[in-house]
Amino acid sequence: TWFWSRSRQELWNKGATSGHLQKITDIKGDCDDDTLLIKVVQTGAACHTGNHSCFFNNIDFNKAD
Q: What is d(CA 20, CA 59) in angstroms, rounded to the nearest whole number?
């Protein structure tokens, strides 16, 4: 997969230097054709923190205000 890096202002290929590759298994577009959902099989860490995925923070939406 290729991503746009806002910090580097350039395209980068996930895994090109780290070896943490992503094998695409499915791609879907939303109804407005402005967002992609890309499902992958991840090899190694996907997140710069070293985690398998960047989505590891739970959000408690059931808390009362």
A: 27
Of 24, 28, 46, 50, the closest CA to residue 37 belongs to 28
Q: Which residues contact 65 (CB under 8 A, 6 or more apart)?
A: none
One-letter amino acid for residue 43 of the chain: T
Residues 50, 41 contacting (CB under 8 angstroms):
no
For residue range 31-49, list pLDDT tens digits in order.
999 999 999 999 999 888 9
Q: If we measure between CA atoms, which residue out of 40, 33, 32, 31 comes closest to residue 3?
A: 40
pTM: 0.67
